[in-house]
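Ticket 4471: requesting a sanity check on a complex prediction with NAP. Repro inputs:
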Amino acid sequence: MAKRVALVTGGNGGIGTEICKQLAAAGYTVVTTCVDAEKENIADWQAERRKEGYEIGYVEANVADFDACAAMAKQVESEYGSVDVLVNAAGITRDSFLHKMDRSNWEAVISVNLNSAFNVTRQFIDSMRARGFGRIVNISSVNGQTGQFGQANYSAAKAGLHGFSMAIAKEGARKGITANTVSPGYIQTAMTDAIPEEVRNSIVAQVPTGRMGQPEEVARVVVFLAADESGYINGANIPVNGALFCSF
Ligand code: CAA
Ligand code: NAP
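Returned structure tokens:
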């Protein structure tokens, strides 16, 4: 069988980089999206991965922009082939209490974290249905399960991803497509580096495991869900949170 193709949005971020590396190590042809190749020095990022032994492609797209995603999908399909595995990992935070939140910070977070799942997945779902295979993994958050101070926008978007995944899971099940959510807790990346230190320390103090998670601990679950053999795991949410929030 030809190598399966995996597309990771936000694949050059903290968690995304590890997802790309582990998928490449597992034998996938891996492509990441980036918003602006030049600004992000994506060629340098790619060269770093190459030095580590991973060959990872890139395409430009702002995932908040449907038309840009449509153009990106055409490019991916012509350069790399049909996408078998889609990981929606792009995300941002714009934290503030609701009583201080302006409309632009609400809209930016909903667009990049939730609308993006539609904007990107919509481009590939027809082809997955036609081919009878697809693996969709949406990166949500513990804060979509519990809510968090300063994150009415982010918690709403991440909770929305669960609903999105469950609906797609049901629609795709008979077409060989699975859709699952991974909900990381606090993982050491640029996103959590931006939390004020005192607040971060007080959050980490509440994590039973006693530390933040590492990106590779999230990537491990993504690779598991992406596997051909994971076809009966569908519509699930898998937490990776050091027991910060336990539910069943
Ligand atoms: N738990 C308990 N109390 C909290 C709190 C928390 N997580 N966050 C804020 N508060 C309290 C503060 O202690 C403070 O209490 P007092 O008035 O009694 O002193 C009050 O709320 C106001 O807090 P600030 O003075 O900090 O108010 P602010 O308006 O300057 O900032 C904030 C508010 C934006 C929420 C800021 O506290 C903050 O950035 N908090 C971190 C939010 C957070 O956890 N974001 C996660 C980002 S990473 C991520 O999202 C990844 C993921 O998926 C897990
Ligand atoms: P990160 O290092 O900041 O990575 C975020 C990625 O998203 C970057 O590659 C970023 O690209 C990309 N991105 C942002 N806006 C975009 C847009 N409009 N279009 C396309 N790509 C865009 O953060 P991270 O911690 O790895 O987060 C990855 C995912 O995990 C996010 O969905 C986040 O919400 C989720 N998550 C993180 C944690 C955590 O504790 N770190 C916990 C739970 C869930 P640029 O570099 O160009 O900005």
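Notes from triage: The two ends are 37 Å apart (CA to CA). Leaving this open until the requester confirms.
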